[in-house]
Amino acid sequence: MNAEGLKQKAAQLRRDLARMIGPGVPGHLGGSASIMDILTALYYGEMNHRPEDPSWPDRDRLIFSKGHAGVAQYVALADCGYFPKEDLATLKQLGSRLQGHPDMHRVPGIEMSTGSLGQGFSVACGMAAGMKLDGLPGRVFTVVGDGELAEGQIWEAAMAASNFHLDNLVVILDNNEIQATDRISATFDTHPYPEKWAAFGFHVIELNGHEFDEILDAFTKARANRGSGKPTVLIAHTHKGQGFPFALDTAAFHNGSMTPEQYAAAVGEVQA
Amino acid sequence: MKMSNMRMRYGQTLLELGEEDPRIVVLEADLGKSTQTFGFKSRFPERYFEMGIAEADMTAFAAGLSLTGKVAFTNSFAVFALGRSYDPIRQDIAYPCLNVKIVGSSAGLSDYGDGSSHQSIDDLALARVLPNMTVLVPGDGEEAARMTRWAAKHDGPVYLRICRNDVPSVIPEDAGVLEPIVVREGSDAAVLSAGIMTARALQAAETLEKEGLQVRVIHVPCLKPLSDEAVRNAVAGVRAIVTAEEHSVIGGLSQAAAWALRGDGRPLEAVAVQDVFGQSAQNAEVLLEHYGLTAEAICRKIRFLL
To answer: Is residue B176 situated within a structural domain?
Structure first.
C-alpha cells in the first residue's frame, strides 16, 4: 500500500475506532489516534504477518507496551481479518474478547497481554532475544508512550536491548506529548528523548508520525539497521487525538467520553 | 543425619535439564554464584541471560522468551525474585499463564547474616494469591531437584522456594511433588509442615513419642494448588493439628490449612513467623530459635492443644 492508500486506510480505521468506543462511554481515543497512522503502516505495509495464521513462526510481532492504546490495534486486527469486525461492538462488555486492555488469549494477533505500563517493552525484548536464539527472520515492534517513559523498567529494558544486541527489535515511541492528566512537560518531564535513547545504545530515528512518507522512510532505515547489533527506536512526533479535532492535543481524551455530536463528527468526517 | 543443599541440587538439576531440553533458558540478576546458576552459564552461555541487577525487567523478559517457546527460569533471592518483580509476575506471567519458573533462592530466614532486607517471610503469600501459579516448597535437596524437574515439564507459572543452607534429608525420594506426604504416622496429633520445618516436625514427633504421644507428620510440598480434601484426608483421625512453616503466619501454609479445615472444629495452632520482619544473626539456627521455628516450639503447641 502506498502513502496515499495508507492515509485512506488510517482514516477508515479512525472511524472504526470511534464507532467501537461509541458515544458517552470512556475510551482511550487520544493515545490510540496518535499511533493510528504508524499502526496502519505496520499492518498494511511494514510487518510480515498472516491474519489466517496468527502463530506463523516467521511473522513480525507487535506489542503495545502502552496497552491502553490496544484498542487501536483491535480495529486494525479486525480489519485485517484476525477476527470478525462485528466483535468490535462488544468492546469492554462482559465476556467480550475485547478487554479494556489487550488479552493475548482472547484476541488472535495480540502477542502479549499488556496494560501495566512499562512491562510490554521488557517482554518485547525477551521475545526478540528468543527469536534470535532460534534464528527466526521476524522482528519485534513495540509501541511505548512518552508518559510511560517514567516507568523505571523501561530503562532497564532499554539497557537489556542494548546489552543483548537486539537489532531485531524496533521500539516506537508515540511522542504525543500528553499523558493522562496533562502535558508531559507539566506533569513529569521525561525529555529529552533522542539523547536518552542514544545514550542507552539505540539507533535513533526521528519522524513525524502522521506523515506517511516519513513513516515509510523511517521503516526503511530501521530495516537497514538489522545486523548492526543495535536496537532501533523510532521517535515519532505525534498528536494526541490526531484526526479528531475535538480531541486534538488534549488530555481530556486520554480516556474520555464523546458527546453525541462529537461521536457523529468522529464516525462521519474524520480528517486523515 | 544425611544432609543436602537445595540450591546446589537445583543448580545441578538445571544443568541436567539444559542437556536434555534445548528449550531451557536461565535468567539471572547478578546472584548466579549464590543461586548456583553459574554452572548453566558455563555450559550453555547462549541460553543464559545475565540481566544485571534488574529483577523486574528479568521477569518480564522471561515472559517474552517463553512466548518463543522457551522454558524460562528466573533467579534471584526470593525477596527480590518475588517482591521486586511482583507486578511483572502478576501481569506478564500469571495473568497470561506463561511458562516461566520463578526460583526464589535464600528464601525464608535462610540468609541469616544479611538481615531483613534479604529475608523473605512474605513470598509464599505473594505467590499463593495469584491465579494460575503453582507454589512449590521443597523440604530438602533431593526434593528441590525433583521439583525443578517437575517445573521444567509443567506448562505454566511456577514459584519454587529454595533454602540457602544445608538441611537434613528427610523427604522420601520416591515422593511426588504435588500431594501432601505422610512422612511419619501417628494418631494423636498431626503436624502439617512445609519446607525446612518438616525436619523439625519429625524431631518434635520423636520427642513427643517419648512422652507417649503419637504425632503424624505431613509434609506439604505444594502450597498451591492444595485441595481442601487433601488437607482433610491428611489430618483425618487426629485430635489436634499444628502447622509449621518458615514464613509469616499470614498468607502461607498456616492460613491455607486453616481455610481447608474451616468448620472442622479440632484445635489448630501455627508455628510460623509472627507478623514481624526478620533480622541478622550469627547463624541460621539462632535466628530460627529467635522466631520460634523449632522442634521444641512444635512440641509445646501440641502439648498445649492436647
So the answer is: no
Of A103, A116, A122, Cβ closest to residue B61: A122
Size of interface A-B (CB pairs under 8 A): 99
Per-residue pLDDT band at A268 (split at 50, 70, 90): confident
Cβ(B106)–Cβ(B84) under 8 Å? no
Residues of chain B under the 50 pLDDT cut: none
| Mean pLDDT taken over chain A | 96
Contacts of A152 (CB under 8 A, 6+ apart): A118
CATH of the domain at B129: 3.40.50.970
- Same domain? For B109 and B203 the reply is no
Q: What is the pLDDT of residue A271?
A: 54
What are the φ/ψ torsions at residue B274 (nearest 5 degrees)? Answer: -70, -175
Across residues A238-263, what is the average pLDDT?
Answer: 96
A104–B54 C-beta distance less than 8 A: no
Residues B220 and B194: beta-carbon distance below 8 Å = yes
What pLDDT score does A269 carry? 62
> CB-CB: which of A113, A125, A157 is closest to B96?
A113
Judged by CB atoms closer than 8 Å, whether chains meet at A112 and B67 is answered as yes
Q: What per-residue confidence (pLDDT) applies to B26?
A: 98
Name the minimum distance, in Å, from the CA of A84 to any CA of chain B: 23
Full residue range of the structural domain in which residue B271 is found: 181-305
Half-sphere exposure in the Cβ direction for B25 (13 Å, CA): 31
Q: Are residues B188 and B86 in the same domain?
A: no
Residue B174 lies in a domain: no
pLDDT, one tens digit per residue, over A134-165 is 999 999 999 999 999 999 999 999 999 999 99
Range of the domain at A129: 3-50+58-268
Whether residue B25 and residue A153 make contact (CB cut-off 8 A), yes or no, is no
How far from the centroid of its chain's Cα atoms is residue B165's Cα? 13
Q: What pTM was estimated for this model as a whole?
A: 0.97
Residues linked to residue B101 through DSSP beta bridges, in sequence order: B73, B158
Tally of structural domains, chain A: 1
Q: What is the pLDDT of residue A270?
A: 55
CATH code, domain with B251:
3.40.50.920
Give the CA distances from residue B262 to residues A13, A91, B131, B239, B267, in Å, rounded to whole numbers and listed in that order.
55, 41, 21, 15, 11
Interface of B with A in 135-164 (CB under 8 A): none
For A164, which residue in chain B has the nearest alpha carbon? B49
pLDDT tens digits along B91-104: 999 999 999 999 99
Look at the alpha carbons of B17, B22, B27, B28 in this order and tell me if their dihedral is positive or negative: positive
pLDDT 10s digits, B57-66: 999 999 999 9
Q: What is the CATH number of the domain that holds A237?
A: 3.40.50.970
Residues B213 and B288 in one domain: yes
In a domain, B21, yes or no: yes
Q: Do A126 and B63 touch (CB under 8 A)?
A: yes
Are B163 and B186 part of one and the same domain? no
